User: Fold this.
Amino acid sequence: MSTQEVTGHGLRVDGLGRRKAVNRLMESLAWVAALIAIAILGVVVFSVARRGLPALNLDLLTKDPIPFSLTNQPQGLANAFVGTIVIVSLATLMALPVGILVAIYLNEFAPAPIRNGVTMILDILNGVPAIVIGIFVFGLFVVGHGQSGWAGAFALACLMLPLVSRSTMEILALVPNSLREASLGLGVARWRTTLSIVLPQSVGGILTGTVLAIARVAGETAPLLFVSSFVGTKTSWNPLHALQSVPVAIFELSESPDPADHARAWAAAFVLLMFILLASLGARWLATRNRRKMMGR
Amino acid sequence: MTSAELTADAARRPFTGRRVQWGDLILQVVAGGAALGVTVLVGLIIWKVVEGARLSIQTYGLGFIFRVAWNPVLGHELYGAGSFIFGTAVTSFFALLLAAPISMGIALYLTELAPAVIRGPVTALVETLAAIPSVVLGLWGILVLGPALRTTIQPWLHDGLGFIPLFGPPSSSGASIFTAIIILAIMILPIVSSISRELFLGVPSELKEGAYGLGVTRWEVVRGVMFPYASGGIAAALILGLGRALGEAIAVTQVIGGGVFIHWNLFSGGDTLASKIAASYQGSTTKLQTASLIYLGLILLVFSLIVNLLAQWIVRRSARKHGIVRGGHA
Assistant:
């Protein structure tokens, strides 16, 4: 009995040392894991900046590319930047109102089973791979009609819709019910309560969600390959024709064997990355400010 | 206000009532129509993809799924998804294998170890990783990461562990399945770690404090209390990460090199379902080839639907187990 106790005791002391060592090992591994993630971000951003910045100049934003250029004429990707602005703006105009309406319906009107069902469908839509959205829009609009900026905008809108809806739903759920009840109690109709009491309370949150959705789709290449990629080299603002876009241009230039093309790809990637990082950080800042405002109320 | 005015006011009320109801009705119909539209949209996606693939489905049937072939030469046309499904499975599996422990480590660091001052900034940085567009990550993968791997880690693994078929001779270009795995792992990392972080934050502190009170170490609390409590959610997070890896087209197309064969050498080229579709967007010459590409898209769509529904089901089941409804995927 006593010997057992001693060995037991001895084992425990031994075990404690080992357990502490295991704990230390695991803690340092977690530390290393966090370091890996930050290092990857640093290396990618640094690589893009180091190669993109030297190639970055005003010509990139203002001059069109020159096909098969043998001379060293200055050329840029103006057509891609203009195309991305047109396509992403149209996509936002399509997705934003529909996304907000869906969220209003689900949060303010729908009975629980419908709300759960449609929320599930939004999650499914969010999980459809971007390239499949491209195939879908190809079959819907491009077959028989040809590529267009509209088709590209619709494809991006399909990706934005669930993002806008889900973030709007989350923010609508944060609006205190006492506000709705106070308004309804004063005899204000439900639709007016929704549009002039609930919605204005959520504007900040909706804006955050929209900026994040724009940042997400501005860098999407896959859905545009099939619906807006066979383009000329002239800048065009007309969405009835296929428009070039920054991600598609980077994709095509990255497959090229010419180092000059790579340089332009890096420069465009740098501009795109900076836009997306600033938009994400801006949205994050908006969100914290907004949350503080709502808490303070 | 006189009583006559009050009566008049009361008499008017049904009218205002009715007018107000019209407003309610309009908003409900418009907003409900939008919600119906989303449902129709998902149905339309499935229908259009099936319709686009019909010619190939009729020609090859289900045999398409397992056949290893992609021959667009006119007169000898033969298509199959076998090698692409294999490529998708291999890249997604190894990317998940690589990303899962690192994501767990990040989530644990952010919830348990990080000093309060750097917790916020590090969380923001990890989530910023998710914001990098795949085409930029692919550009970096093909021009920086691929060549670097080919001259460092790949020969090193090949020399040391070359007897394992996974570590064969490196390809000449640097484009390889291995590069694709690393790029996919980078994409999965922020998704899995941010969901896991929220799960770990949701572990009731009574449970953790109870365990600490028994004198166990921090790792033992993590292993014995936090992992079991969050296991369902972690599984769902990993499955969502898998869904991301399955569907990624652009970055994989840029770095994987291409090819229609089944082999176990990670350092050689291949293709996934998504990367094959993205790589062939310009080259399709016949209707059968286009339909076959869309058939690949249909298989991808089915995979992603299964993965998505599975994750939702797990989340719902574990929420019921803990008697709570979590935000996000309730």
Q: What stands out?
A: Chain B touches chain A through 93 residues (CB under 8 Å). Strands of chain B lie at 70-71, 78-79. The radius of gyration of chain B is 27 Å.
